[in-house]
Design goal:
It comes from Aspergillus versicolor CBS 583.65. This protein is mainly alpha-helical. The chain folds into two domains: about 160 residues, Son of sevenless (SoS) protein Chain: S domain 1 (Son of sevenless (SoS) protein, Chain S, domain 1, Up-down Bundle); about 270 residues, Ras guanine-nucleotide exchange factors catalytic domain (Son of Sevenless (SoS) protein, Chain S, domain 2, Orthogonal Bundle), CATH 1.10.840.10. The chain has 21 helices and three strands. The radius of gyration is 28 Å and the shape is elongated.
Length: about 475
């Protein structure tokens, strides 16, 4: 594209018909005003104008405004733009902004003002947006199409930026080169530093060759489960959180990392139930329940709410919940612990107990993915993509971005526990092999036949968590096969 040339000094200034911008300097000079300001919809939030909608062109212009930096909007835009435009379209529009053309009818003096106060600041904004996009929110797969786009951006960064002496080019070029090399973790997470915290020594049984579940220390089991859970949670990527990708069927499985974590949570709950039902002896079943509640308490204390809820769900599935004779032998202390943590999955008032627990939690912490997905589902289904005026609904995108940002914030968690490979292998193989608890009702009846209370429609005096978990899974974590 050609660079803008200065107009001759004898060209007269045309009167302005464009909406005035908020900058005092720009209000006095018509040719510094935004071109698409009237294509944006604003609402006041505590006296501050917030973009609620706009055309694609107006949104990209606002993203790269020469006279205004709206950090909150830029973050929302870069997190959610794949829901309304492609990366190739965004790059093309950014190039239009970078090579912005001066309006007709400028004098030589006016052109110099436009050049220094609009074009150059706009170009700097474009460079910063490109760098932040590629560094933080690049969602393209590592395929030929994405690489072709990266090469276009790279050529632009090498050729066009130095020619006009725009700062920031070196950082952008470095990010693009790393992307071209296949580095998907260009920036990585800013982890919470725990270097000053001593790593606790693992608590292991004397015999590790033949692992027996009840011989394993509950706290150490919780540590290893937490490390496994964090490994899965840490891999979730931005694009998997948009447009309910985890629920879609496709030739290439969408949202593989979210689906992997959902599968792990479900298999963990199945494993809990399977181990209990494998025991014909009532006392051993009671020991197993107590052991799981001890693991549950340790996970909860570690703020690993993902594993906590999976264990609660396993203990609350119908085949386990109905074992009234077994539950009646569980100690009052264990039952009190279980019921206290069980409240995390109570759906009353939109999971208020869980949300309050999360608000009070400090990192490191592993949230329950299901609530994030439930919120994203409700936002996606409950808000139109466009406003009544046909503008892109940025209010919807801001709500989604807030959930995604919270999810990403907890990916900065870091635990100081030492991995124990043999123990992790045992947990992975055991959970993967667990059978679906939906097929275990007959086994439950073998262990404890129906009581008169059950046959009359009653049940054990314990609140099942299964229905609450099912509500979350069905509403938000359901996966298309």
């Amino acid at each position: 594209m050609e660079h803008a040339r200065a107009p001759s000094s004898d060209v007269s200034v045309a009167p302005s018909t464009t909406t005035r911008s908020s900058s005092l300097f720009d209000e006095a000079i018509w040719f510094l005003q935004p071109d698409h300001h009237d294509e944006l919809q604003f609402e006041l939030d505590n006296g501050v104008p917030v973009v609620k909608g706009g055309t694609a062109g107006a949104l990209v212009e606002y993203l790269t405004r020469h006279d205004k930096l709206d950090t909150a909007f830029n973050q929302v835009f870069l997190l959610t733009f794949p829901s309304f435009m492609t990366s190739a379209q965004l790059f093309a529009m950014l190039m239009e902004r970078f090579y912005i053309q001066h309006p007709d009818g400028l004098t030589q003096a006016e052109y110099q003002i436009w050049l220094s106060h609009k074009k150059k600041p706009t170009q700097l904004r474009v460079i910063n947006v490109l760098k932040r996009w590629l560094e933080y929110t690049w969602v393209e797969p590592d395929d030929d199409e994405a690489r072709a786009l990266l090469k276009k951006i790279y050529e632009f960064a090498l050729d066009s930026i130095p020619a006009i002496k725009t700062p920031g080019s070196n950082g952008l070029i470095n990010v693009i080169e790393r992307r071209l090399q296949g580095d998907r973790n260009v920036r990585g997470h800013q982890r919470v530093s725990l270097q000053s915290v001593a790593s606790p020594p693992p608590v292991l049984p004397k015999k590790m060759k033949k692992i027996k579940f009840l011989d394993l220390n509950p706290t150490e089991l919780a540590r290893q489960l937490t490390l496994l859970e964090l490994r899965l949670y840490d891999k979730i990527r931005l694009e998997e959180c948009l447009n309910k990708a985890w629920q879609k069927r496709a030739g290439l499985e969408p949202a593989p990392r979210i689906r992997a974590m959902i599968h792990h949570s479900n298999q963990l709950a199945n494993w809990v139930g399977n181990l209990i039902l494998e025991q014909s002896d009532l006392k051993k079943r009671v020991r197993l329940i107590k052991h799981f509640i001890d693991i549950l308490e340790a996970c909860y204390d570690m703020r690993n709410y993902s594993t906590s809820i999976a264990v609660v769900s396993g203990l609350g599935t119908a085949p386990i919940h109905r074992l009234a004779r077994t539950w009646s032998q569980v100690s009052e202390r264990s039952m009190a612990t279980f019921q206290r943590i069980q409240r995390l999955v109570n759906s009353t008032r939109n999971f208020i107990e869980y949300r309050e627990t999360m608000r009070a939690a400090s990192p490191p912490c592993i949230p329950f993915l299901g609530v994030f997905l439930m919120d994203l589902t409700f936002i996606e289904d409950g808000n139109p993509d466009h406003t009544p005026a046909g503008l892109i609904n940025m209010d919807k995108r801001a709500k989604s971005a807030a959930v995604i940002q919270e999810l990403q914030n907890y990916q900065s968690s870091e635990y100081v526990f030492q991995p124990v490979p043999d123990l992790q292998d045992y947990l992975i193989s055991s959970t993967q092999a667990a059978e679906d608890m939906a097929s275990k009702h007959d086994r439950s009846l073998e262990l404890e036949p129906r009581t008169r209370v059950e046959m009359s429609g009653g049940g054990a005096p314990y609140v099942s968590t299964g229905t609450h978990m099912t509500g979350i899974l069905v509403a938000s974590m359901a996966m298309g096969d």
